[in-house]
Design a protein that fits this description.
By secondary structure, the chain is mainly α. The protein is built from five helices and no strands. It is elongated.
């Protein structure tokens, strides 16, 4: 998209300070925005996010900060990982401190 004239230059100057305006002025190529929307990824993210939400609420009610932090992390990180195996491995790594705290 070409920006001509004073308005276009002012918009691009404003874009230096605002991230959404920066994306409009300098768009990201579409080939770098690929995302894996397979069924296994979506179901894994839904299950892990639900478990994270449960841990978040339970940790808040029981005043257990470990559960609160791990639950919050489990709600957020599936959005950034696209491989279901990686999502489940990170889940296992996050659940290990809960298990060791409870049985240790």
């Amino acid at each position: 998209m070409e920006w001509d004239g004073i308005i276009g230059r002012a918009w691009c100057l404003f874009a230096q300070f605002h991230p959404i305006a920066l994306l409009i002025c300098h768009p990201v190529p579409s080939d770098t925005l690929s995302m894996d929307l397979s069924a296994s990824t979506l179901i894994s993210s839904l299950l892990i996010g639900s478990l994270g939400g449960f841990l978040l609420l339970y940790g808040k009610r029981a005043e257990r900060p470990l559960l609160l932090v791990i639950g919050g992390a489990m709600c957020v990180y599936p959005y950034f990982l696209t491989n279901p195996l990686t999502v489940w491995l990170v889940t296992l790594l996050l659940l290990i401190p809960i298990w060791t705290y409870r049985h240790g």
